[in-house]
Amino acid sequence: NLQEFLDSAEDKFSRMGPLGSDIDAVKRQIAQLASFKQEVDPHMVKVEALNRQAQELTERTSSEQAAAIKAPLTEVNSRWSALLRGMVERQQQLERALLRLGQLQHALQELLTWIENTSATLDTLKPVAGDPQILEVELAKLKVLVNDIAAHQASVDTLNDAGAQIVQQGTDEAGETAEKLATLNRKWRELQQKARDRQTELEDALREAQSFNAEIGDLLSWLSEVDSVITASKPVGGLPETASEQLERFMEVYNEIEANRPKVEAVLQQGQEYLKKQDRPNPTSQLHHNLKNLKSRWDNVTARASDKKIKLEIALKEATEFHDALQAFVDWLTSAEKTLTSAKPVSRVMETLLTQIEEHKSFQKEVATHRETMLHLDKKGTHLKYFSQKQDVILIKNLLVSVQHRWERVVSKAAERTRALDHGFKEAKEYSDMWNNLMNWLNDTEQQLDKLNAEATVNDPEKIKQ
Questions:
Q1: Alpha helix stretches (DSSP H) within 125-173
Q2: Most exposed: 188, 232, 254, 296, by fewest CB within 10 Å?
Q3: How many CB atoms lie within 10 A of CB 261?
Q4: Strongest mean pLDDT among 232-236, 325-329, 389-393
């Protein structure tokens, strides 16, 4: 809790007491302040993070809520600034106390040591590629150092003034003092330049990371929109036209996904390169989370898109096959109806009738073959009705009813034709049998008469009697 820390730090700082009157006391107080500073400085990161979070919250809330957020934060910032200002003032007071006690060399050495330590700390602040959160923390750490460097400007000026007086006086320590002052000023300029360079590096890296993560954010938003289009549950088209139209519309989305594939893969690849550059990769970092989220969403969307594409292609294939088969069956029905309508009346001439019977048997086989086709069409149409759009279902249902009615009529008329041919065959056979019997009797009678005529020329009375 930042407020609890401030309560503790303010209390501890207030109990540091007045400046010491001897060298040892001042040195102890300098060490005490340095130790206290090491406790306080790390909290700068928390203060910066708190301000950043508050800024993000106030941008998304009403003015009343924003005011409620800013009020306690303003107090924290004010107390934090006062604490830092008090530490800087005490540092300067202690340095002046050293000078008053004739400890210029010690003060110079203290400042040179601080410069070296600060320079070493600056070296640890390295740009972390692609991760805004880590870079913001690094910049917050840098801000602590930059503020500390700025606060030490007065110390550098004071030591330069005091050292210049000793050099002008030409005392024994003038040469050593001049040399140390030259070293101090050189290292001071180098430290300031290093701080500026590090700030430029970190800010450039932050801008690049923010741009990269914004690109990830844009891709995630686009993937959400695409996913909502893909997952929108709408029945497939049951007609070739509607199924084809659905597939064409979806292919626009599918092609958009494929067009963005190189971009997504490039971002994922760039993200992996950023992760490889990190000295200590953190699985919980914002960059790692964003890349994992993008990869997961991309894989999910592309898998869904492929599944839907296959589903719509199958729907188009099934609708086309059904309607092609239906049209072929309708064409056959039309032909069958013409065959039945144009069939000649049942003949009673046996030879002609037998030809008609053979022709009708062939037609009946054709009808029997198409019975399976009708059953398959009905089954396929029923399947399409379950999964198709409402308007398509109505049309499919009407088509099936019409075809079923025509089919039943063809079957019925074919059966009637069969019965008529059977009846005709029966009558023709009866007539044929009677005619054959009569002809056989006539032939036998003629033969008997011929025989009698031949025998009439014989003069034998007995044969004549017979």
A1: 132-151, 153-169
A2: 232
A3: 12
A4: 325-329
pLDDT one-digit tens code per residue, 109-127: 888 888 998 999 899 888 8
Q: What's the angle, vertex CA 372, arms to CA 243 and CA 359, rounded to 5?
A: 125
- Locate 254 and state its tokens: 């599918």
User: What is d(CA 332, CA 367) in angstroms, rounded to the nearest whole number?
Assistant: 10
Rounded CA-CA distance 129/291 in Å is 13
CATH class of the domain defined by 219-312: mainly alpha
Spatial CA neighbour of 278 closest among 142, 140, 133, 144: 133
pLDDT at residue 15, as a whole number: 87
Task: For residues 268 and 400, give the distance between their C-alpha atoms in angstroms, rounded to a whole number.
Answer: 53
Q: What is the DSSP letter of 459?
A: -
- Tell me if 403 sits within 8 A of 329, measured CB to CB: yes
Tokens 């993008």 belong to which residue? 294
Sign of torsion, CA 407 412 413 419?
positive
The sign of the torsion formed by the CA atoms of 373, 376, 378, 383 equals: negative
Q: Which pLDDT tens digit goes with each residue over 177-222?
A: 788 889 999 999 999 999 999 999 999 999 999 999 999 999 999 9
Q: Where in the chain are the domains?
A: 2-217, 219-312, 320-439
- CA proximity to 381, closest of 314, 330, 319: 319
For domain 2-217, give its CATH number from 1.20.58.60, 3.50.50.60, 3.40.50.10610, 2.40.128.270.
1.20.58.60
Q: Measured between alpha carbons, how far is 19 from 17 in angstroms, rounded to an integer?
A: 7
Contact 213, 132 (CB under 8 A): yes
Q: Is the pLDDT of residue 91 over 80?
A: yes
Question: 4-50: per-residue pLDDT in tens?
Answer: 888 999 999 888 888 887 888 888 888 888 898 888 888 887 888 78
